[in-house]
Amino acid sequence: MNNKSLFYCLIASSMVSSVSAVMNIVLDYGDTSAQDISSYGAAFTAAERFWESRVTGYIDQGNAAPSELRIDVSLGNIDGFAGTLGTASVTRVNFLGSFVEPTRGEMTFDTTDIPFYGNTFPGTFEDVIRHEMGHVLGLGLLWTFNDVYVDGTGQYTGAAGLAAFREEFNAPTAAFVPVELAGGAGTADGHWDEGTNFASNGRRLDDELMSGSASGNMWLSNTTLQSFRDIGYTVVPEPAAYALWIGFLCICRAFASRSKAGNSAA
Length: 266
Ligand SMILES: [Zn+2]
Prior knowledge:
The protein is α+β, with helices and mostly antiparallel strands. It has four helices and twelve strands.
């Protein structure tokens, strides 16, 4: 469910002049009720810290290095029980060296579904927040702009992510990381593939945090982590060795994509 739409015209890198090499996710709750913030804020803060401790900053630095990644959080009814659990989008980006980096995004969650996490739905609410936050960081949403994926191919080719995939999923000759092509817009072209036999130490790719549907324990693979390096971030742990990837950017506009989560896809 990846309804990609033209959202923003050029966001010039000169628009943001703050210099920071450190990842700083800022959650903006907008008009979220105090009660909802009280009930769910801890899960959001935990997800923020989860990513900030792993996706730590920017490979390229300079005037366009985002001083923050501001994420607008909305809690409310989307479609009642099940169906869509949450959505994510990137709404603003900076051009930073060889990369396109998000500076603002949105996440929306269906509060009707929250009581059912860990029971009817796999994982926890925090897992689903992590998943949507991973999209706002760029996984799936900024792949094409960072030249690591071509829509419709099902083949992620970012060097660091692919190297990690080959190692942890025992696929030394893999030419790409398989990307989901099923599930319709919002799932296709924005997640790791479901329905393969890839597994790492008994953990299935199907159950991974950023696969196309929410299942299992939603574990974080090194493939996901290292893929953030491919789109311009420093990560922990850094890869032991990686091929430096240099992208070619001739983008005159930025897209925002909306990633919706189905009852089997977050
Ligand atoms: Zn998703």
